[in-house]
Amino acid sequence: MILHVLGCSYRTAVVGVREKLAFQGEQLDRALDALTSRFDCEAVILSTCNRVELYVGQVVDSLSSKADTVGPSALINFLAEFHGLDVEKVRPHLYQYQQSGAVRHLFHVASSLDSLVIGEGQIAGQVKAAYEKAQEHSSAGPLLHALFRHARQVARRVRTETGISKGHVSVSSAAVDYVRQVFDHFADKTILVIGAGKMGELTLKHLKELRPRKIVVTNRSPEKAQTVAHGCGGEAVPWEKLDELLTQVDIVLSTTGAPEPIVTLERYQKIAARRTRGPLAILDIAVPRDFDPRIHDGDQTCLFNIDDLQRLRDATLAERLKHVSPAESIVEQEAKAFLADWARRRNGPVIQRLTQDLESKRQAVTRNLFSKLNGKLSDADRKYIEGAFRLLQNQFLHGPISALTEETHAQEAAAQHTLLDALRKLFRLQE
Amino acid sequence: MTVVCFLASYLVALGLEIWRLFRPRPILWVLALLTGGAGLVAQTIYLTVQQPPLVGQFGWMLFTAWILAIFYLGGSLHHSQLAWGVFVLPVIIGLVGLAALGGALDPPESGGLLLENWTPFQLVHVALLFLGGIGMCVGFVASLMYLIQAHRLKAKVPLRHGLKLLNLERLEEMNRRAVTLSFPLLTLGMLIGLGLMFVKGLSGWTDPRIWAALIFWLAVGLLLYVRYGLHLRGRQVAVWTIVVFALLLGCLSLSHPVGQGSAREKPDGLGRVDGPGEAP
Q1: pLDDT per residue over A162-185, tens digit each?
Q2: Is residue A49 among the annotated active site residues?
Q3: Is residue A35 pLDDT above 80, yes or no?
Q4: How far apart, in whole angstroms, are the C-alpha atoms of residue B150 and residue B142?
Q5: Nearest to A319 among B156, B160, B168 (CB)
Q6: Separation between Cα atoms, residue A404 and residue A413, nearest integer Å
Q7: Using the beta-carbon criterion (under 8 Å), do B156 and A278 form an inter-chain contact?
Q8: CA dihedral in degrees (B115, B119, B121, B124; nearest 10)?
Q9: Beta-carbon pairs below 8 A across chains A and B
């Protein structure tokens, strides 16, 4: 097995460099074709906003001595040439992994352990998309098929067996988390959107996923209210009806650009006195804040501002870090399992050939012996002699097979090849 | 088998639930369920064999605890991620503990359930009051959870820390349903009880337990008025519910005049007494 990973990520290259090395659209198609034809190898390219990685593999026939034709330098040159960049300018931003290191790296990446936000859910889909693209181009062969399929299993295990992907790490989705602490069902809830800020759009998108009964939008500018209402499938209501709306709705998303609170404590107390509905959850993500923070009581009025949401996000991230260690253990376990399985596949033909070879020699020797001793041996004697030769054969094979298996666990390709080469030469297994 | 058997099981289950707050592991949840389930089985066997009188503190509290144990197991299975047991188990343990402490006043020999000695009206009277009491226990648990959840929201405690509770709306709904269902059950039970008292010539009407039950029933009615008449919600209603639950405990801690009567009248050789035929 020859496996290389070459690439850059947010850790090693700023976005300006990553942009230049990225593969988009037809570039990706050309790159896959160019890689496979130039190096006669398997290839998968993972290109996201935070990383660009080339996964290149070759299955070396254990019965031949095919030289390693693709190496890190060749890949760096390819990458630089493809994008028309100077190799020496690109090289400092690149990292490379080989063999078991490459396996571990992919498993880390797919499990989101190498992501900017640990535990993020997008990377698994991006890895899958990269693999599927390679399949379309037939650039993924048996090695990368096995590797990327295993990577998906690893990602699934990490996600389900650890808490690394639990909770929300964006401010807008953290807002929904808070709202869920107040309300149980949303089909009978009305959401009021005040203002039209950009941050509000993303939060509103998450709130819409709760499928509320109704969304109403108000803004000092009726045109902006109409635009936002149209965008979210809501209804625009005049600004003058704000107080009335606050007595009737259940969730408020406030994101105006007002320089001071639009709802003061005194104003809200009058509104609260007229409310007959249950609690009111207010997401005040405006800066400066739109609602007086003193109205928050955690009971009938739950007010969350941008600081609260960011604190929630930070707490979630900190919590996720606790799950990194168990996740790493899973990755290590699965990497060993993959390498052992792959080695078994690679060593299988050698062991089979060795066994067949010795078997045929044993049969030839016993045939010769029986023909010379014809008539002098009983059936029981023949069986005993055959059994003895078979036992000798098994004992003879045990040593080389055990040594090969032990060497597999050493995870060093060079050592494995040396032993394989030795077995080929010692037992004349070369074609 | 004694009360200690299932009390110990519930205590172990509570210990495991508390441990789970600090180390959320699925195995702890499973163990808590198993020990809680073992406690329930032991309690079921005890109640079946011993048949403590429902009219006394001992029997009443044990039966209430038994129903709540089923409630605990069901809730724990349904809300495996929540700190359900941390709230329900202390109520169960408290009831069993109180029953064990006050049980001397209602020795089992006072006649068991002896359902064959009860008139249908007496059975219905006891069943309705019993169910109404269970409702108030559920309301109490929901209220306690509500107050804690509201406090966490007020303090803006990070959501993934510590207790995981149901949201405010769900807890309020649980409380509302529990109290709203309890009141008609209690009312009907009280009316039947009053009827039985009149039939017996108002015998036992001065008993403290009767007056305590009446005060409790009035308090539940007031709680409903506060909710639906004055439209109070949330924390205020939760606090009221807890106060009413305290009245229920006070009521349960008093001996039922029928139970007292049974204790005074020694059972005959067959363990029978002149049944709970006296008015409550």
Answers
A1: 888 877 777 778 888 889 999 999
A2: yes
A3: yes
A4: 12
A5: B160
A6: 12
A7: no
A8: 10
A9: 65
